[in-house]
């Protein structure tokens, strides 16, 4: 049996819609695989009751198919589905690493990115790689049609998840089809600022670079309490706040010394809106880790 711990991720980071992503130190999915004549899936953990075990409908089934690697797959969900932390992608990335090793396919982590993205196509209709790339490679990733660029980074973060859910498929429905040149120019500037900030481990630059006037305003309108939570995080010292992935999770960038206070302020603001939430005090972290259990 092989075991993989595959981290949650936060995609988009505001200005990098469908392109930027970071691996988070926590939470994570744990995937266990054993060779079998046919793929079967069992699921435990956060939100497991909402996830299909049919391999045709589960992201890990799509990965097993793409790698021609049938297996008994056990998923222990640490990443709650439809919360904005790349739940479906964590399972897909974990399965890709585990099955690649189980069947000695010899593919590199970069080569596994499009394979894990097959799972994302299954659940959201498009094979975007901005969650699977950081879950596989760790750090900060820039996923484009030309491939993935990765840098290790160490930037403190708070990911606050309300007890509500937004499906990626629905959230993609509100993304504007066009944008003004002014907004595009503005977003390019912020995206470049964010990328430089990641290379310097600079929370000020990363926080400033989250700003986006194209997708985030439409997405944040789907999240009850978002404006109050954002305001509370900024008042508590966050250097920037945005929607995590497709939402409803909210991501704050900060200095380490402010992280605890920001987590509390965000949860209090959701609470004042009548919504329970959970905050992860975390940081940009490593990619999927493989354990050989013997
Ligand atoms: N292994 C899996 N883990 C989690 N969700 C899965 C898995 N396989 C299929 N799904 C389905 O995918 C959907 C969740 O994916 P979705 O992209 O909406 O959320 P997410 O991955 O948590 O969010 P985001 O991409 O915004 O960070 C649910 O409908 C769930 O049933
Ligand atoms: N880039 C994707 C990430 C969520 O899966 C989106 O925002 O729709």
TrEMBL record:
UniProt-listed Enzyme Commission number(s): 2.7.1.39
GO cellular component: cytoplasm
Keyword Mitochondrion part of the UniProt annotation: no
One Gene Ontology term from the biological process aspect of the record: threonine biosynthetic process
Listed Gene3D superfamilies: 3.30.230.10, GHMP kinase, C-terminal domain (3.30.70.890)
GO MF entry, a single one: homoserine kinase activity
Keywords: Amino-acid biosynthesis, ATP-binding, Cytoplasm, Kinase, Nucleotide-binding, Threonine biosynthesis, Transferase
Pathway(s) where this gene product acts: Amino-acid biosynthesis; L-threonine biosynthesis; L-threonine from L-aspartate: step 4/5
Residues of the GHMP kinase N-terminal domain: 59-139
Catalytic reaction annotation: L-homoserine + ATP = O-phospho-L-homoserine + ADP + H(+)
HAMAP family xref list: Homoser_kinase
Family: Belongs to the GHMP kinase family. Homoserine kinase subfamily.
Stated name of the protein: Homoserine kinase
Organism expressing this protein natively: Natronococcus jeotgali DSM 18795
